[in-house]
Amino acid sequence: MTTLNHLINGEAFADSGRTADVYNPSTGDVIHQVPLASRETVQKAIDAAKAAFPAWRNTPPAKRAQVLFRFKQLLEQNEQRIVQLISEEHGKTLEDAAGELKRGIENVEYATAAPELLKGEYSRNAGPAIDSWSDFQPLGVVAGITPFNFPAMVPLWMYPLAIACGNCFILKPSERDPSSTLLIAELLYEAGLPKGVLNVVHGDKDAVDALIQAPEVKALSFVGSTPIAEYIYKEGAARGKRVQALGGAKNHAVLMPDADLDNAVSALMGAAYGSCGERCMAISVAVCVGDQIADALIERLTPQIQSLKVGPGTCKGLDMGPLVTKAALEKVTGYVQDGEAAGAKLVVDGRSLKVADHSNGFFLGGCLFDHVTPEMRIYKEEIFGPVLCVVRVNSLEEAIALINAHEYGNGTCIFTRDGESARLFSDEIEVGMVGINVPLPVPVAYHSFGGWKRSIFGDLAAYGPDGVRFYTRRKTITQRWPQRASHEAAQFAFPSNG
User: Which residue numbers delimit the Aldehyde dehydrogenase domain (predicted)?
Assistant: First the structure.
């Protein structure tokens, strides 16, 4: 068993304080220990970032982009190492981990366009002999707090763009599966990043609170559960920080009577059970418009869920691995028990799943509920596991009202062949990311990711154009050079261009 270190000022930094265990969820064994940073350790990272900022902000954007180009190459060259670490510590399949990494690399590609993204705006003769222009300047020291379910992709949403904009970054990754995150950060230094521009500190709430309370940290990015997102937003905003905090979800898929059922079933299988349901964009509710489509969906889903290939994530050819921790397994099975007790029909029960030679792993088979109602806890709360709930309604309007009444508004989709239904749905639904016959409408890197309602706190979404605006602040300069041999009297009226 190895002990991981922090990465501060470009070097490994050992911490002799508290530690947490990192598990292989397929076996239940402890494979690493990770230090939980003290406030002094967090401050050491902040000091390193603060010291690096003046030189980095004055580094031309094209040179920053060159570092990111080399970083992208190193990520691609080390794909197998990174993917193996993700699967070992998170449990997701190798194929799923590879897909996660590729989506992260797309964000690095976007950040390499820093010279274009940071171009300002210019107006000549905005007034008589007056020129005006705006540029976008970095904030300084910024921080990101990232979740266990995407240890590669979500950090790559944050710091490549932040440092491309000229900031210095402190990353607090999940302590549950930090190895891939740490390796990726080390590769960025191998690509030529100056010391102190990126720092990684492992930790728990103490480290998070230290980042929130540090006056040197100007902005906080977060992805995780809604209660923690709301806490970080309120505490950060109260201290004058810029905050983007992405929270939980309860994503609905609406199936119209005219849906292409074969494609819808395939899409739902991947969207509900991929990564063991541990995705903020997972589809966890299928809203069927009419009993006929609901009965047909249940009939087709049932044998496919029962035949899911489940095993250690590091084995090839699997559909699903384990949940990330024993606590996560107990939480999800608790929801299944609660759904039964509330009167929902448990069509497929994954609790009986046994994986050969892995009796101590955190495995749960796919579960399927029918006749779920909005009053049930399994409908209202984010389960974050391989559980799909089927809700029956009588019309598209009823489906839209149902979704709009939910506290979360992260992602949703509709399966239909009818353009009028699709347009009505996309216009009226109060959700930030919408798919039309697309089950996981995760925007590509040159758009931005973010939900509505209690799925996000803050005005700007993650990565893409919103990410550039989040990690910069606009400065507008108005300039006038008086003509020679001229003198103007003082003017006391407010200046205008009239």
Answer: 16-477
